[in-house]
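Table 4 source record.
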Amino acid sequence: MSGTVTILQCIGCFPDGLFGPSSAASAAWPLRRSAEAEMAKARASRRVSVIGISARELDRTACRANMYLCLVHDRRRVYVNKRQKLPARLVLIVAYDGVQIIDIAGPAQVLSTANEEGAEPAYDVRIVGFHAGLVETASAFAIVAGEIPAEGAVDTLLVPGGPGVHEVRHDAAARTAIIDLVQRTQRICAVCTGAFLLAEAGILDGRRAVTHWRSADRLAREFPDVKVDPEPLFLNDGPVWTTAGVTAGIDLMLNLVQQDHGAALAARVARRLVVYMRRAGDQKQYSEPLALQATSGAPFEDLSRRIAGDPCLPWTVETMAEAAGQSLRTFHRRFEAATGLSPAKAVEKIRCDLARSLLHTTDLNLAQIADRAGLGTETRLRRAMTRQFGVNPSEMRERFA
């Protein structure tokens, strides 16, 4: 901590100010030695804040903050307060057999890095289990979970996902533990399929929620009282946050760090972790270029790689049809059926994704990025990226800066 000292001075008691021209008179005061030393250190380092308030408010303030030291000379009062460290924000991440390790490690690393970057108050991150001891993760290695604190307030509770969630959510003791934790927690978060455990405990009833897109239909089917939205990266409804799968837990934690400590610290954490800064919660879980590669299968997967590998080629429909080994009419029909996109829109999306990567990982100017991504000019770059991402290239670069 900085060791900043705040002096609450009764207005009218010391006309020249506590550390002003008449400060020599203060040497005659029968002050305690510890208080003299504290104020002397503060003066030497110039880390002093003097606040003038009325005598009544002075006494009221001192009563509220018991860390104040009261110094009395006749009827004159001076209260000295050395700023104390704020208590850490307790974050509990629940582990269970079959948990997905990235749902634990990703958010925990965000908060750990925030501490290294100067988060104040810091985060006290603890991995806890419904049964303390070794927990077998879905990645076939074990981690050690501590005991869930029996009492006391919790700042943030995080329930990760994983294939084991469907077994643990039917465990009565686990449900009871979650309900108890929720009642003393300020923020409740579920990553990926961790939403099923919250839903089983009734915590998502009547709330909007999201989970991994592959599990969204199941969540909606098994819990009709939950308003499932399958598309966003993360959703907030009251004190409850739910996220899509895997890296969306990192996006959520960056958002919470920003809420707690501001955009500057969250941006430093994002840069340290080399991730996109402040991906909007309502952004879709997967980008169209990735969807193109995932859904196209053998006929178009190779084509999408070729476009990304040489985006500056004139990728007309004719060129793409020839590269796919199909007639123009057949290619156009099959491509749209497989990807949901026209060939021209697919090419633009791939180029914009490349441009976004260059914005975040290089110092190239916009004209150079437009040229390398195959978009030609700065104007075309701006228009295309605004269509694809809702922000222009300069704003996108600032989000990562």
